[in-house]
Amino acid sequence: MKIIDVKTFVVGNPPPGFGGRYFVFLKLITDAGIEGLGEVYSLPFHPHVVEKMIKDVVERCVIGQEPYNIERIWRSVYSSGFTQHPDLSMMGILSGIEMACWDIVGKDVNKPVYKLLGGQVHEKLRSYTYIYPKPGDKTDVYADPFLAAERAAEYLAMGFTALKFDPAGPYSAYDGRQLSLTELERSETFVRMLREAVGTKADLLFGTHGQMTAAGALRLARRLEPYDPLWFEEPMPPDNPREMAKVARGTSIPIATGERLATKYDFVRLLEEGAAAILQMNLGRVGGILEAKKIASMAEAYHVQIAPHLYCGPVVGAANIQLATCSPNFLIQESILDWTGFHSEILKKPIQWQDGYIIPPTEPGLGVELNEEVALKHPYTGTALHLDMTHHPILP
């Protein structure tokens, strides 16, 4: 069986747009008629440029290859252009290609991918969601701790036992920085009110996006510690694991990070420095499913857990589920609410979620199929990127 072609889909994510402005999917097509589905996460280029990049890489490195030869394809793409370095753009493209190969292999042998990577460890997967706005909200749930506490109670009633939120304010191209006293106070108030609202019924996941220096992160951590969050997420930019380790050593709150890293080579530095207790690889960026499994295995040796990141489409979500199901050190999986809405509509069969837990699929491959009719009805026509940062310094 050989790979003979590729299709791409740039899909606009309609309101409310949870998961990003658009999703970039690809399909690898084989001469046996089996197609494999993949997703590329958040490259720093317009998605129609990303489509051309996908096609270029597939034509040069993938067409004519056997989809079973995942290691060979991975090394060829990783080394393309004499690089051999975790370039996030190339690794995003490689991630989508790699998970599509696994989808083909699983379909060919009629097994879920997790059965091919050590077998099923977890019968169901604990999940969490961000605290999101709703139509009719009179204030901003991202900045109003009273509304966030009300929304938390609604999510508990749905079955969630963990909630994430990010009240620390905007993130900038000029971070890390010291948060203002107002930002520090708002963050502490959020955690205090949410802890009062959920008690011991839910873990609190304090999300940030690299806004702080190590010193600034420790100032905030001291305010948060009395409320016992499950984690403090990416408190400073991801480019210096030694500085991140200062935060990890200086607080009792577990540090979670990794959504902006790629490959075992980035993650081993986190582990060697003791910079994180929880790794948040995004399978649409990190290098794919097998690379993420290698990282999970390295983490296992350090007694570090994994919580795969998801702020994109459900194909990365499906890949995350395959990894989580077969990984002994899996902690919790990010969900976009309960996988309903557009994350359900874009698939022929939605991801199964029940009472706060994801139910791993039994279908072969990734266990999901793209609804191409829905995908084609929602082309992305905007100019903005999937995510972006404020491009001026944040003033106190």
Explain what the structure shows:
- The strands form two sheets. Strands 4, 5, 6, 7, 8, 9, 10, 11, 12 and 13 form a ten-stranded mixed β-sheet that branches. A three-stranded antiparallel β-sheet has the order 1-2-3.
- The mean pLDDT is 97.
- It is α/β, with parallel strands linked by helices and 396 residues long.
- It contains twelve helices and 13 strands.
- The protein has two domains: 3-110, Enolase-like, N-terminal domain (Enolase-like, domain 1, 2-Layer Sandwich), CATH 3.30.390.10; 115-366, Alpha-Beta Barrel (TIM Barrel).
For the structure shown, list the relevant keywords.
about 400 residues; alpha/beta; Enolase-like, domain 1; TIM Barrel; 2 domains; three-stranded antiparallel sheet; about 15% strand
Beta-strand percent range: 5-15%
State the name of the first-level CATH class of the largest domain: Alpha Beta
- How much is the radius of gyration in Å? 20 Å
- Main sheet summary: 10 strands, mixed
SSE order, as H and E? EEEHHHEHEHEHEHEHEHEHEHEEH
Tell me the span between the first and last alpha carbons.
59 Å
CATH topology of the largest domain: TIM Barrel
Residues in helices, as a percent range: 25-40%
Q: Helical stretch count?
A: 12
Indicate the CATH architecture of the largest domain: Alpha-Beta Barrel
Regarding quaternary structure, how should these chains be classified? single chain
Main structural class: alpha/beta
Q: Rough shape?
A: globular
CATH superfamily of the largest domain: Enolase-like C-terminal domain
